[in-house]
Amino acid sequence: MSPWPSLITASALILYLVVTINVGRARMKYKVMPPDMTGDPNFERVLRVQQNTLEQLIMFLPALWLFSEFVSPLVAAGLGAVWIVGRILYAWGYYQAAEKRMIGFGVSILCLFSLLGGSLIGIIIPLVKQLI
Length: 132
Prior knowledge:
Blueprint: H1 3-30, H2 41-70, H3 73-96, H4 102-131
Helix pairs in contact: 1-2, 1-3, 2-3, 2-4, 3-4
GO cellular component, one term: membrane
Protein name: Membrane-associated protein in eicosanoid and glutathione metabolism (MAPEG)
Subcellular location: Membrane
């Protein structure tokens, strides 16, 4: 097992921890106490970053590991690192204004599609070769 995808996995989880902590901080700053999930639009953007990051993690982590196993651990880690940068840009932009999230979203979704698509290719090619 390569340490590179492991490092990216740990880094992605740390990113998620940070955006989760930011929700708690925003709750205090904008006075939106649990169980409320709406209130100040600034709070709602911080919450949306956390929720979207969780949604992305569900697809990102398996895709990262499948790509690592069937294609290349180093390339998987590189794409994963760019995904993390994309998620940081997404958060940074969204914290400012919803329309500023698109560059980060685009970067991260392209990395996710690359990992998923590459995984499928890496899985299917050996299967087809076995059939031929």
